[in-house]
Design a protein that fits this description.
Blueprint lengths: L5 H7 L8 H19 L5 E11 L1 E3 L6 E7 L4 E2 L4 E4 L2 E4 L5 E11 L11 H19 L15 H7 L11
Antiparallel strand pairs: 1-7, 2-6, 3-4, 3-7, 5-6
Amino acid sequence: MAWLDPSALRSFVKNTNADDEAMIALAVDVACGKVEELCGPIANTTVTETVTIRGDQLVTKYRATALTAIATESGTTLTTADWVIDGQLMRNKAGTCYTGRLTLTYAAGCFDPLTGDAPAWATSATLIIAAQFVRSRLARNPADPVPVGFLVPNQAMEMMSGHLLTPEGFA
C-alpha cells in the first residue's frame, strides 16, 4: 500500500500530463514497496511473526517499536516487559535462555504519531526511486539519456542507509 500521495511525485518530477496519472500512481506504489522492502514498514502497523530462538535474544524481520505479545510454541505466554527492544534485536532482560520457536506480535513503522507523516528520509527516498521509474518510462528524447537497469539510485540508498534492515538476521 502506498503511503505517499501521487501528487507529491507529480510535483517532484514536474509532470503536468494528465495522461500519465496511472503511471505516476504505479511509480509511487513501486517506490513505497521498495522502501518498505529495504527498511521495513513505514506506516505504523502490527506484525505477527514466528522466530527461532536459541539463547536470550532473537532477531525480528522488522524494527520493532513495541512488543505487544510473546508466546512459546506450546502456547505459554511470556511477559513482554521482560524483553528489551533494540531495532531488530530483542533480548530477555534477565538473560533467560529459550530454545525453539516464539510467536511475537509487535508494533513496527515510523510514522510521526502527532502529524501522521512518514519521516523525511523515507519520503525523499521514495520520491527519488519513483522519479527514476517515471523517467525511465517517459524517456522520449534519445539525446536525453536516462540511466536504466536499476530501480534504486545510490542517492536513495544513501538516504535509507541508517534505516536498512539486516536481512536474515545478524552476521
